[in-house]
């Protein structure tokens, strides 16, 4: 059954991402719900990937735990049985795929770190030789490892539009110099911890996006989903070759299938056949299990 905000008719809907929903819970909390929807070439597909929402939620929760000595997170609980009573009618739809979080005052920029050059960073580099004010050496290609990890903040674009990279000076103008410096420091520190961990498990973390916010005591917390395949680019380490697009850890079967159909990348996208759905689901589960060392079945049985 598809999961849209219409199925949570009793809750106050705060917003939709392409594949996620956000609800208010009382005055001080929000509920983040990850659906099984998937996008490819920026279009949400008509076919869902079973358990995708639970895999991404489980990964975020595991990362929040790994990072808790560096930065506090927004998570209050992911145990549906501990959620407030108003959520009880939705318990089975929420199990495994939701996080009850402190309601934060969100920081108005996205905090991006890049260890490899691709996507919008590559576009800016080809145009200007720099990304977010970091001059880069000549001769870098799609997929090149950067000489050092760079912090490339971006604006939060409305849904359907693309975030735009901004300079660190522009970021400081938007959020204030002191907070801008703290966001950069935290983003690079978290990215370093995460990419070391992923590399030990044969996965390259090319880039990732973090969101932060302040709680009611003014404490800066890591928010949103973190270090999932939807907020990051994960590449298998053993096939990495700079000089072109790298295979995506999670979506490569889907991209190959869609290209093969001749689809022109305008909505609506074609349905996916069962074998592509099943192999993609297996890749998500593999990402969870390789990174965390936890069996996905065990995660589901504790959610
Ligand atoms: C918040 N988003 C992104 C948009 C989604 C997610 N803890 C929080 N407190 C207040 N607001 C947010 C958060 C978090 N995380 C998250 N925008 C605001 C977003 C739409 C759907 F699932």
TrEMBL record:
<comment type="similarity">
    <text>Belongs to the SAICAR synthetase family.</text>
</comment>
<dbReference type="InterPro" id="IPR028923">
    <property type="entry name" value="SAICAR_synt/ADE2_N"/>
</dbReference>
<keyword id="KW-0067">ATP-binding</keyword>
<dbReference type="GO" id="GO:0005737">
    <property type="term" value="C:cytoplasm"/>
</dbReference>
<dbReference type="InterPro" id="IPR001636">
    <property type="entry name" value="SAICAR_synth"/>
</dbReference>
<dbReference type="GO" id="GO:0004639">
    <property type="term" value="F:phosphoribosylaminoimidazolesuccinocarboxamide synthase activity"/>
</dbReference>
<dbReference type="GO" id="GO:0006189">
    <property type="term" value="P:'de novo' IMP biosynthetic process"/>
</dbReference>
<feature type="domain" description="SAICAR synthetase/ADE2 N-terminal">
    <location>
        <begin position="14"/>
        <end position="267"/>
    </location>
</feature>
<dbReference type="InterPro" id="IPR018236">
    <property type="entry name" value="SAICAR_synthetase_CS"/>
</dbReference>
<dbReference type="GO" id="GO:0005524">
    <property type="term" value="F:ATP binding"/>
</dbReference>
<protein>
    <recommendedName>
        <fullName>Phosphoribosylaminoimidazole-succinocarboxamide synthase</fullName>
        <ecNumber>6.3.2.6</ecNumber>
    </recommendedName>
</protein>
<keyword id="KW-0547">Nucleotide-binding</keyword>
<comment type="pathway">
    <text>Purine metabolism; IMP biosynthesis via de novo pathway; 5-amino-1-(5-phospho-D-ribosyl)imidazole-4-carboxamide from 5-amino-1-(5-phospho-D-ribosyl)imidazole-4-carboxylate: step 1/2.</text>
</comment>
<keyword id="KW-0658">Purine biosynthesis</keyword>
<keyword id="KW-0436">Ligase</keyword>
<dbReference type="Pfam" id="PF01259">
    <property type="entry name" value="SAICAR_synt"/>
</dbReference>
């Amino acid at each position: 059954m598809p999961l849209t905000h219409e199925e949570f008719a009793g809750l106050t809907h705060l917003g939709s991402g392409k594949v996620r929903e956000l609800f208010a819970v009382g005055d001080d909390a929000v509920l983040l719900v990850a659906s099984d929807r998937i996008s490819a070439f920026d279009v949400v597909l008509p076919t869902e990937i079973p358990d995708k929402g639970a895999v991404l939620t489980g990964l975020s929760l595991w990362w929040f735990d790994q990072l808790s000595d560096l930065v506090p997170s927004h998570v209050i609980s992911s145990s549906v049985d501990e959620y407030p009573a108003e959520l009880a009618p939705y318990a089975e739809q929420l199990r495994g795929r939701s996080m009850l979080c402190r309601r934060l005052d969100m920081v108005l920029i996205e905090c991006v770190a890049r260890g490899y050059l691709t996507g919008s960073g590559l576009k800016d580099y080809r145009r200007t030789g720099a990304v977010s004010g970091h001059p880069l050496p000549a001769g870098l290609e799609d997929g090149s490892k950067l000489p050092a990890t760079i912090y490339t903040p971006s604006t939060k674009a409305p849904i359907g539009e693309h975030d735009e990279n901004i300079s660190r000076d522009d970021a400081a103008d938007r959020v204030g110099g002191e907070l801008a410096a703290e966001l950069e420091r935290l983003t690079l520190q978290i990215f370093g911890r995460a990419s070391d961990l992923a590399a030990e498990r044969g996965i390259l973390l090319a880039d990732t996006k973090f969101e932060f916010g302040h709680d009611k005591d003014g404490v800066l917390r890591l928010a949103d989903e973190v270090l999932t395949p939807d907020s990051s680019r994960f590449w298998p380490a053993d096939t990495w070759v700079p000089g072109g697009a790298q295979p995506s850890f999670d979506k490569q079967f889907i991209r190959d299938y869609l290209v093969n159909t001749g689809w022109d990348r305008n909505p609506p996208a074609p349905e996916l056949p069962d074998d592509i759905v099943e192999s993609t689901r297996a890749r998500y589960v593999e990402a969870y299990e390789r990174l965390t060392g936890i069996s996905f079945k065990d995660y589901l049985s504790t959610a």
